What does this fold into?
Amino acid sequence: MSEITEAYLPEFIITIFIIFNLIASLFFSTYLYKLSKWVTLLGIVLAIAATFYLQIEPEAIVFNGAFLTNIYTVFFKILILIAGFFLTLLSRNMIREKRDRAFEYFSVFLSGILFAMCTVSSIDFVSLFVSLEALGLSCYLMLTLNKKTDAKQLTFGYLVQNAVVSTLFLAGLSFIYGISAQFSFENISLFFVNSGMTSGQPHVLLTFSLILIICTILFKLGLVPFSSWLPDTFEGASYPIGAYMSSIPVLAGFGILSRILMTFLPYTVTMKIILASIAVITIIFGSLSAIRQDSLKRLMAYSMSVNSGIVLLGLCVFSVYSLSGVLFYLFCYLFANIGAWAAVILLYNSSKLENINDLKGLIYHRPYYVIAFTVVLIALAGLAPTSGFVAKMYIFSAVARSGFIFLPFLLLAMLASVIMIYGYWRIIRAMFRRVETNIEIDNRVISSKFILYACAFATVFIFLFADRLVRLCQLVAYYM
It folds into this structure.
């Protein structure tokens, strides 16, 4: 029992509520579907509270060295749970339409959150593979809630592509095991130290193995060359599922990718150049694709890809300074991204508005919605006075300080980021246009409206008190 409270109490609580939802789906009446949302919210709140009881000093390692709890993992778990809290509220209208499957939906929803937290705490390649595949399985199951024919086809395509990158993970893992006969991150690192390899000395087979393993993570983050699934899958997904897939897997993916790079980058320097190239290509491709989109879903999909590329660029130069910048960027991205999705969901649930052209003249119907939506879009674009501006400058300054070799990557990324601003500007311009429309926005959608206003306020609040949050992120990065 002491091991549970010290190392994985939040995961234990989430597991209990998953089981409760599964039992409720079998025995509870359909008329009690609203209870599923409140039960899920209670489980997430209790899990957030439980993170403050975890042992972080000294760090706790359980399950024979496969599961780690320290201040770094707790930071990511809190972010994942906060995202889960907001996403639960955003699911209100969807479970109303599918009330007979509400408890099943939230059991799968919580399973994704559970395995996202397990992914962040994994320090063993076997446990990491299981966690990533279980997280992917939760995404598949939630995508199938949309019964449209094209949605099923797109979901199947996503499933096939993920199966391919999963085989690459296993291939890379087999090479690493063949080299070191170990699965644990620490033991593999010790093997290279004991074999006499010095820091900065390249190892070709290790580099090749890591590329294969990281492919699975790059796929979930929507990075080139594994980003082809993003726009089509988001187009076929329900709106709350799109918000889920742009938040939970991103936090989990970068949480574990940072740890992998921290452990193995000293023995494979060429990985820095490879990851920087992937990041810049992703930003350029995503930005150029985003400015041609009319669908809000597809634009948000490319927004996720571009932001993932910016974070990866900061991560590939790996230092305490750049890692703290990555943590701060993810913290800001959480509120900006969920706020934007809350606005999109609010517009769809109220008036079935799905395209940018449908938003013309919206400022004259719901000015407060438009202002809040504009704030979160400005944050995603990385402009002042929002948290996105500070976060992006933090990342770019970390890359600039890393050496001349990364300056070309930085310049290309900054140029592509300017292009991406135009994608967000198209939405803002449409909402402020002077045209007569008959748009009717339902003012009773309280949950989406609350999240939109809360996230818009958070982006400005973080901008004003960024120095304190940056110091917190530096502390977390130092104790990684």
About this structure: Residues 281-480 form one domain. The chain has a mean pLDDT of 84. The longest strand covers residues 60-62. The CA atoms of residues 26 and 103 lie 9 Å apart.
